[in-house]
Design goal:
single chain; alpha+beta; Lipocalin; 55% strand; DUF6265 domain-containing protein; signal; DUF6265
């Protein structure tokens, strides 16, 4: 009887320590805050320019937009967000003309980058950002295709 109680107490303590060891969503969002600001695209197609801007809305929400310009005309616009849905963090992308956003689940996170995935989406299925100082490389990929978007922080 005493052994059974002791085993139950040990099991409870192990579960509690595992729960406390996991990063909270608030801590994860803190790791994403390096995105806040304006990022100028350094490898747009000829005759185009582009940028992303990110703002911290709350401790659990970042909001941004991706813009591609041809001269002064906006030819592509997407609204971006990092949000919490349930227990998970998602990168939400709403392209102009679409009615609903596409959600990519945050699957990897470090101090200098992240990966978000949605295997059910046609393209992309994976979005990865990797920061190196004042530079960021964003890669969208899936179905054997990959596209890189290189950015530099605006001064």
């Amino acid at each position: 009887m005493r052994t059974k109680k002791l085993l139950i107490i040990i099991a409870i303590l192990l579960m509690m320590s595992a729960a406390y060891a996991q990063e909270t969503n608030k801590q994860k969002f803190k790791k994403l805050e390096w995105l806040v600001g304006k990022w100028i695209r350094t490898n747009p197609e000829a005759g185009q320019a582009g940028y992303e801007t990110w703002n911290k809305v709350t401790d659990l929400k970042l909001s941004g937009k991706g813009v591609t310009l041809k001269g002064k005309e906006t030819i592509f616009l997407e609204h971006l967000e990092f949000i919490v849905k349930g227990k998970d963090i998602f990168y939400s992308v709403l392209v102009t003309g679409e009615k609903l956003p596409t959600y990519f689940k945050l699957t990897a996170l470090s101090a200098n980058g992240f990966t978000c995935e949605n295997p059910k989406h046609d393209f992309p299925k994976k979005i990865t950002y990797q920061r190196n100082g004042q530079k960021v490389k964003a890669t969208i990929s899936g179905n054997g295709q990959s596209m890189d978007y290189n950015f530099v922080a605006e001064d």
